[in-house]
Amino acid sequence: MSNPTKPIIAFDTETYYDKDYSVKTMGPSRYCRDSRFECYMVSVYDGESAWSGHPKDLNWGALSGAVWLSHNQTFDQTVYEEMVKRGQVPAIQRAGWKDTSHLSAYLCNRRSLKEACEFLLGVKLTKDVRDQAKGKRWGDFTSEDREAMLNYARSDAVHCYTLWAKYGHLWPEKEQRLSEMTIEQGMRGVQIDTELLKEYIVISTQMLQKTEDLLPWVKEGRPPTSPKAMAEYCRAADIPCFPIKSHFDDGEARYAEWEQAYGKKHPWISNLSSWRSINKFLDSLQTIAERVRDDGILPFGTKYAGAHTLRWAGDAGINFQNFRKVPLFRDQQGLLISDAALLKEISNSKSLPGFVTASLDIRKLLIPRPGMRMVVSDLSQIEPRCLAKIVGDDLMLANMAAGYSPYEAAARARGEWTSPEPLKSGDKELYALKKAQILALGYGAGPDKFELMAKELAGLDLSAQDPEFIQTISETGEPCIGSDGKPILISGKGSTAKRIVKEWRDANPGVTSLWKQLDAALKNSAGGTFEMELPSGRSMRYGQVRNECRMVRNEETGALERRWVKTADIGGRRYKLYGGALVENLIQAVARDVFCEALLRIEKIPGVHILWTVHDEVVAEIENGVDPEEIDRAMSETPPWFAGCPVSAETQVVSHYTK
DNA sequence: CGGGATCGCGCC
DNA sequence: AAAGGGCGCGATCCCG
What we know:
By secondary structure, the chain is α+β, with helices and mostly antiparallel strands.
């Protein structure tokens, strides 16, 4: 906990909102700058007495020098600063400001005050009073409404305070700092190239319109992506209905196949996907345009501990963690280029080919402030490095410590590559194979999934079957021997992937035994909580573990079968879990903790301002005279609690966000 | 009219 | 027995 001698005060605000004017759609900054903005109530609680009322009536001096607490600090701080700016309330010195929604997210993966209070305090809250305030200004409240609202606001402040009083000591100082940094980053914002933004909006609006004109059902007044309309058009054209991507592991491939087969004759098929991509793109642009301030700064938010691994997540309308990497390219007809061969040609050529009439790169909009430089630095293959350390794969670790990437380290550890030449240039195919294995197989993927991931991650086509594998299925030509002592014969479709998966599992007993170990430990936790302690010292918890019997349809026979599965509660929702998934959670969480240590170091470098983060990537702007190498060094350091895990980073100075 | 569920599209 | 996982948001449909 921060200095206990300092007074602690919970601080909550209530503001006007309605259907068209809300924080949810506008984000706190834009919401508070609006002419409709009105904060008609604040509530405070200092552990002894609670007060609520109009901000003009609060004894603000009493809050001076205290540590303030809010549940969703960014909102309350933005409201408070807006009132100061408007001269409605005085500027008060504080000893700190803590966000109890972050505390709760850290402790139990619950963010809202309602869920936090229910889980941590055993108190059921109702937001009825708040919901009734929709569309009402202070003058519109009846005296009864006002009384209810005052009570409601006081109780929120009390709950916020109680969360801190009971649980604040369980939130490590470092995590509190990370929470604070997250809020600072979002409120400080990023510079936007507003001229380019305008240009992009014009072009993508035209592209969307042109694309929409080619969706025949839109003329009939149907929505552009109406699944019902699409199905009707398939039926009328006498072609099979489109496959639903999420219904199959290879749904993406099935859809591509369907589009390939019928897209030529029915142009609306590819225009539909184009419409979705352009629409999403344009929506991001419009959100940026609505929220950017007159000085060209865009405030934004990211969620501290947004995932149960405690990784950050996107927040509030514009997600800084999923800006598309490949630009949208426009063709001579003014439509989106979606043909795979053309896209490949574009990416392979140094300058834009003549058939491209516009290139829209959303990342180009995010630029450093005047006089600053932007730096992008990311941890190199952090998850496989963490996995090797966790399972104690000393050979891998030694090779990585010698400077090899995990992909090359794995090849060298098995003696598959011994030349002094780098694997990446020396044997492209082996490099791709090792990359696919490292990225895909650590968390339990089977052959079918591996075949898909190998294609996606390393461009490997494993669909061809090699009759050799029937007889000689190991690298040495020896048949692999199963647990029953008999050779394992592999043949038929998917034989290549099957062989590779098996070989990898045989060569990585540390990983497979960790799957089994965690799977067994989870099973043994049935009826209680399963907990994994992480090297950094924190724990991941899975509540109310159960072994459940579920009826599952057999893919091949179509018959319903009983399957025992293990499930547990994460943040109030039930998930199916198994060894591979737990290892994945574990490694993702460990990698996040490694990244956090780097962030805390970077943040201390004078003249460096972290802008935002994307899981293993930090985007910062640096003042004149700062050496970007300092950021690279801060990123490449192994945390003291993870000695022996070689950490490496890649850092570049850029004129706009890119990767 | 709003919430829930589902699907698609982005990212690591 | 086998099984990669983690996010957010817009569009649509359905239901109360």
